[in-house]
Specification:
The strands form five sheets. An eight-stranded mixed sheet has the order 6-7-8-3-9-10-12-11, with helices on both faces. The protein has an eight-stranded mixed sheet with strand order 18-19-20-15-21-22-25-24, sandwiched between helices. It has a four-stranded antiparallel sheet with strand order 2-1-4-5, with helices on one face. The two termini are 39 Å apart. By secondary structure, it is α/β, with parallel strands linked by helices. The chain is built from 24 helices and 26 strands.
Amino acid sequence: MASPLLQLQQLAVSYKVGRRTLDALRDVDLSIDAGQTYGLVGESGSGKSTLALAAMRYLPANGFIRSGSIMFGDKDLAKLSPEEMRARWGRQIGFVPQNPATALNPSVRVGDQIREALRLYSRDESDVMEILKQMRIADPARVARQYPHQLSGGMQQRMLISMALSGNPHLLVLDEPTTALDVTTEAAILDLLRGAQQMLNTAMLYVTHNLGVVATLTDRVAVLYAGELAEDAPTKELFRQPLHPYTRGLLDSVPRLGQRKDVNRLRGIVGQIPALGETIDACVFAPRCPLAIEICWQKRPTLDAPTPDRTVRCHRWPEIMAGDISPSRAVEKSSQVTKQAANQVLQVDGLQVAYKMPGGTLQAVRGVDVQATSGRTLGVVGESGSGKSSLARAVIGLVEPSEGKIDLLGIQLPKRLTRRNRVVLSHLQMVFQNPEEALNPHLTVGESLSRPLITLRGVKPADAKAQVGELLAAVRLPADYADRLPSQLSGGEKQRVAIARAFASQPELLLADEPVSALDVSVQAAILNLLADLQIEHQTSMLFIAHDIAVVGYLADEIAVMYLGQIMQTSPAETIFDAPYHPYTEALLSSVPPPDPFVKQERIRLEGELPSAVNPPNGCPFHTRCPRFLGDICVEQKPPWRETEDGKRIFCHIPLEDLLRDQTDVLQFEGAKKS
């Protein structure tokens, strides 16, 4: 057998923080072959990024390799000097970071940046156009002349990938390269990586918390927990039967396509990952493990090989493998309440939102009509730039609509936030994507939660303290968190506090704009369950925005699909995954990487970029990218709304019977049944 391209042996990595030495990785073994795609998963703090940076000897200044080796071919990278490593970066090892906006030089045109990379790798600088074509850039000459800020996030990421591949590296390390991208852009990036790998036989180490990407892209998966390798297996074997309870917990935290909040809750993982540097002589996962027994608290498990091609660090893997025990928690049914008459909470008619731009007027929202009723969730999905956030910000009052009206509880709202009184503000609250920006860093949690109680509900300051404790309990946080500052909380804890603050005024409508997209899957599961519980308890209406259709499908009761500022389809959540679809919905669904390697998709890839909202297309706004384009009628005429018997409304020229004839269910299950 050929030797591995990269082999980590007993690798241990530590960081110097003040006078302390904190261990980040302990005794990690990993082996990557040429042309292989290796997924690296685990919660934040598990050591994924540390391992990726250590593998390419690119640790920050306070990080160092304490012991072990990093064999790259016949060389131990751990023993090479910085000068010797510089000769290998780019030419032999490429790197694609998570945020392309900070990795690209904002003052240099992208073509010149690629040209500089080619010069560095002793390649012909005239290859810029050829490389851009390989990245499937429609107008490479125009894109080469642009600056990074003139490109979308997906285009910026393509530029980084093209530069990383310019040196024809043997190994490409990717650290969450698609986390901030919508599903169609993510699908295009993954297709590019597959194509580049086949062409160059490049191995990839892919760091991510997106188990859908892992299931569809990788050959093997390594699961890290608290700096240790918990499990390592071929992808299909790991998804078919994970042998470590932590792996099972990660898989159970992800909503499957078609899974619904009113049928089963997400199981998730209780507790938190140990702090960096925390010394545990037993099993590090024991405090959170549903199968922990006495030996787990007394002895650290060894890394065993249940089969020749997989390893696991768990005392109880033989029982799990034999089927005698299961690390999955008992399925918990969602809370049920007696159905009440659904009252109309939100009515949006003919909403338009426009922004003045140097090149004209950007029409972010164009004539949108949506409704939300008490105790139910309207999910809104679509690509970046489709107008989802502008819709939410117009409803909350952060941007002023140019046309249309917004009714809350039957009362028309003033367009400007400054003209809305405290009663309106108390009934209308919002949870943002980034809790860092939503919480005042100088206020304690208790002070942040007291403010809406006092200002919006008129609670006396002396009584607010007790209610703060009740709010913290509602979001499953201890009462003593009231004395903590936001900097003392994890990302998931901050988002729980932001949700508690939103519910403090007992709102009738909660707007949630990508509230879980930046969270680990285990934290995401807890937040989704929490939102479902609070909605049932308070009968709150919710407008939930996300680009993850599985998440929206899990939490929402109705789903609206937006494209270029307009609604393309509305549907009951339980039928959104069944044909017929609007062609745009069909493309979105076919782009979602399902967290199951046994699910096959009818793949439909959209060509070209989202048209400019400054000059949107006439007729059907989707006609410039539609894979089912009919011709002049799509260009010249506005489509009609077509309704199905099961409650779908589709904005399309294609008759429903033709859609049903030509479309199949996008998801096809092989070797495993839909859960």
